[in-house]
Amino acid sequence: MKQCVSSVLDYKCDQATISDVLGQLLVNKVCSSDEVLPIIKNVIPIYPSLNRESKSQLLRLCSYNYNFITQMSEYAKELGEKAESAIYQDVVIDVLKLEKGSLFNYVSVVSRSEAPFLKSGLFGSKIFNALSSRISIVDYLGYMQTQWEYLFLHTHQYERLHLELFLTCLQLNVPLGIDIFIESVILHSHALWNAFLEMFSKGSSIHQRRLFIHHLVPYFNKIIDARSCSVAFTLLSQIPFTLPVYSQCFNWSNVYFKIAYLGALSDTQRVQLFKEILPYFEQIDSYSDDMVAEMLVLLLNHLSEDSRDELYRDPLSLSFVTKRLHSEERLVRERTMFVAKLLTNNKLEYDSDFTIDVPNIKLEKQANVTLPISIDNIPTEKVNSTAQRDLIKQVKTISLQDSDDEDDEDDEDDDQYFRDILFLKDLVIEFDKAEKDDTSELKLLKNTVKLVRQKKDFPTEVAFYSTQLLKSITTLANKFDEPAFEEWKTNALVSIIVVCPDKITVLYEILFSAELSLQQRMVILTAASLAARELRGFNDDFVLKPVYDFPTKRLPWDTESRSEKLNEQGKIQDVSDIKNLGTVWRSKRLDIEKSRLNSTQNINKFRKYATKFFYPLAHAWLNGIDLGSFDKLFKMHYLSVLRMIITCANPHFEFETMQTLMEEVLKDAIKQQIPIS
């Protein structure tokens, strides 16, 4: 009968024939391309009118044959916006949604040579792109969630391909993938977790490491707290491979997960990790030094006394002391001696009240871990309402006048000096001097706004010095309680980002890795949103945009009076002169030029950089943020900035993806009881 399927459906395609053909094909389950094609051409177009039994037969047959859904996806793509395309899309959606064993069946019969096609189709966005006009990425990943749950619960023998496919599925959309496949699948129950561990054990070491670092770590880093620290330790200890010694672990934001990770390492691995992190400590990077020091303290707390003695006797282990003690920053020296004392088992004599406080958690392997991990009852600390109102008012209400420094008679000499700063390199030097001399930086902030705005047509020069300027400005504090200091600081950051939008990545790096106060973080977020608005074409009165002509535009003969005379010579003195000329022809070029000039103020320069502004903030939220007692206040402002940026991003070809991600952020905010209105 199989030889006749094509000919039968070509000339006879009634309900009975279709049911008979599908029934016979289901006996052997797997179909050849010759058997699939006539069904796609003759049966799929009438899918909506098929009876329930025939629909069920068709979907079941598709669930056994991966080439069915790939060819239907191709048909849907070729048909474009034709109505028939929706029918092909609906069949593929129904297969993935209703036939829960489809993925299990495909993987069971796929050969190693065919595996790349299965991977690129289901998890490489090929099929999703064909369905994207009907479903969102959240819907698609939801179907994949059901498919993986079925596969985990029914697979008895795993192969390397299983982990490879699972990892590819996670990478389809990393933030959503972590929530859907880590939280809602593998950590949803003990049965699923044990199935995952068995699959994990069969994977290659490269895929194991990649899944651990890029997917398991971000999830645990987001949800683990003091109460669930031992849970994470227990789960990490169960993973059937040697946990990697990851030298960048100091960048993880969750100290409790760091403790769980260190507990799961062997003492030998902890010694190795200490040696790998030590070079970062010697570099004295002001934006990560506190995190590196904290990680070293955690490591030393987890090392045995013998291991610490072994490190202490190694000359290289204490080489950091000499270099760091030459630093002019007191905090750097204090951290150095604190770590050194701990390393020497307090044999080093150094009197100081300075401490690096880390949680003291006793890790215990739990016999019965409760899955899923409870994250709903994490306490949210209350924020002082008065402080909240004052800070929001201070950050959101930015209004300044571009006052001239000449008005300040007391600082006339200083003003003349600052007006002589014509190069950004001199500005960078002055910021360094001000920090060392402990003097006010307010005039430097004003000069930054003027100088950067003046050099808006020279973005290469601004870009060269922008990283250092951003680092200097973001870490400034209003030490002398000067009025409008924060407003000028915000304007300085905005001016740099507007001239060099690519540098928003540097600003975000500072935001997430530097040791900053709440106010400093709030200013960074505010500056990012205001820069986005200006690039989008909006004109905010509280953002200063001084315009300065270069000296060549003000040559001695280019005076106001001469310019006015030239203009007057070109004017018609009497309106009656026009009437006597008859028809006056007007060039459309004038209208075009006028329109162009008028539109320059509203040109959308933001579209090109929208993803750089939005995605890092959204992903950072989903990866977890914790600012202690001011957490709620910070996150309220964070959400308002994200909303402002995504509003500026429209129109954009990735706008729908951004919206989907924003919805995930808002859902997470609701879970954390953060007001989103």
Automatic annotation (TrEMBL):
Q: Which GO terms describe its molecular function?
A: Hsp90 protein binding; telomeric DNA binding
What is the superkingdom listed in this entry's lineage? Eukaryota
Domain Telomere length regulation protein conserved as annotated: residue spans: 422-532
Q: Where are the transmembrane segments?
A: none
- Mind telling me which GO cellular component terms the entry cites? cytosol
Q: Which Pfam families match?
A: Telomere_reg-2
Q: Which GO terms describe its biological process?
A: 'de novo' cotranslational protein folding
- Gene3D superfamilies hit by this protein: Telomere length regulation protein 2, C-terminal domain
Q: Family, per the entry?
A: Belongs to the TEL2 family.
Protein name (database record): Telomere length regulation protein TEL2
Q: What's the source species for this entry?
A: Kluyveromyces marxianus (strain DMKU3-1042 / BCC 29191 / NBRC 104275)
Identify the coding gene: TEL2
